[in-house]
Amino acid sequence: QEDTEASLYDRLGGLAPITVVVSDFIDILLVDDVINANPAVNKARERVPAPYLKYRVTSLVCQATGGPCEYKGRSMYEAHAHLDITEAEWDHMVMLFTELLDEHGVPDQETQELLAIIGSTKGEIVTAEGGS
Ligand code: HEM
């Protein structure tokens, strides 16, 4: 990446479009049957307010894309270890995210960069041992 290239944050249009995509994405995950089949995730859904999650995920994405936010939440491992997230649930989440970016008209280059950022967290988030 050249120094002169705009940050991913700027190319996505800044905080307003990022908040919309994050909000839509969390709304989709909260009612998704595959994700909610995980009992620990389903339970967390009742305990953790959606607006809180949207705020935290937005500040993380804003920071990771080069925006002016500072993520102050837990590490990805601390936030997800108790959820026993499987590889299959992860793959399903990535599929839903990719579809959503397409619906919002996010171009291919920016989509690939966002998927790379998400992908870099997989090792901390997918902690389930077996299939389930
Ligand atoms: C299948 C994939 C995922 C599922 C099912 C999932 C689900 C959840 C749930 C249920 C919580 C609340 C946990 C609790 O407080 O008990 C949470 C927190 C969070 N997740 Fe995820 N997550 C996934 C992937 C991701 C990814 C890819 C990111 C960002 C790259 C992310 C960012 C966060 C953040 C920032 C929090 C809040 C941390 C805090 O409270 O300090 N999650 N997630």
UniProtKB/TrEMBL annotation:
Heme binds at residue 80. It comes from the Bacteria. GO terms for molecular function: heme binding; metal ion binding; oxygen binding. Keywords: Heme, Iron, Metal-binding, Signal, Transport. The keyword Signal applies. The keyword Heme applies. This is Hemoglobin. It comes from Halomonas cerina. The lineage of its organism: Bacteria, Pseudomonadati, Pseudomonadota, Gammaproteobacteria, Oceanospirillales. The chain holds residues 26 to 157 of 157 of the full protein.
